[in-house]
Amino acid sequence: MGSKVNPVGMRTGIIKTWDSSWYAGKRTYAKVLKEDIAIRKFIMVKLNDTGIAKLELERNAKDITINIHSSKPGVIIGRQGAGVEGLKAELEKKFGHKFTLNVKEVKKPELVASLVAENIAMQIERRVSYRRAAKMAVQKAMDAGAKGIKIRVGGRLNGVEIARSEFYSEGQIPLHTFRADIDYAGHPARTTYGIIGVKVWVNRGMVYNKQNAST
Fold it and tell me: Which of 10, 27, 71, 149 sits CB 3.0–4.6 Å from 51 for a disulfide?
């Protein structure tokens, strides 16, 4: 029986780059990797509901540079940069490294799978119809320039006894074409009936050069 591979991981090294850039020897690799994961979790918890699409970490001998891609950069930066400076101080205190934080704006959040999935999950938790939330997300993505989008909503939809899945799609999602810039993400919606899973695939067009790949 065939299995679907994560489209982002499948294209890493072909048209997509790694989210972390550093080198470590055999003795320190596990420690650095564990710290990398801890830094990401810390930032995601601290910056919850700020529309974070991607975190890029770069390590060198002097400091750790983190590029935060967000649809709400103003919320992260804060008044006169107080927000980002406070986050930097907390990171340095907790992990004992010097940090450089760069906040970058995501110009089209409708084309970022993680933000689309998170938005749909939040609407479901607020008791908005999952059909309405998914159809609106499809329409917004196509209006923003997507070549195709597919959304899967699965679980005890509307509180029914037997869990099921429903798909909503438009356009093309060529999963076997490696030069197709397919973004993929999932997000859980926690309801009184249990967890409803939301998965999103977004086709942002063909890429013939790594530098042309979207965030």
Answer: 71
Kindly write down the DSSP assignment for every residue of 9-27, as one continuous string. HHHBTTTB--SEE----TT
DSSP state of 211: G
Q: What is the pLDDT of residues 130-155, one digit of tens each?
A: 999 999 999 999 999 999 999 999 99
Secondary structure letter of residue 6 according to DSSP:
P
Torsion sign over Cα 178, 9, 149, 161? positive
Tokens of 169: 């799609």
Residue that finishes a domain, picked among 77, 105, 133? 105
Does one domain contain both 28 and 65?
yes
Looking at the structure, do residues 101 and 130 belong to the same domain, yes or no?
no
Q: What is the CATH number of the domain that holds 38?
A: 3.30.300.20
Residue 53: name the closest of 112, 7, 12, 8 by CA.
112
The pTM score is: 0.89
The answer to whether residue 2 sits within a structural domain is no
Q: What are phi and psi of 32, to 5 degrees?
A: -65, -40
- Which residues form the domain of 187? 109-212
Among 175, 169, 165, 170, which Cα is nearest to 4's? 175
178 in the Ramachandran plot: left (φ > 0), alpha (ψ -120 to 50) or beta? alpha
| 54 close to 62: Cβ distance less than 8 angstroms | no
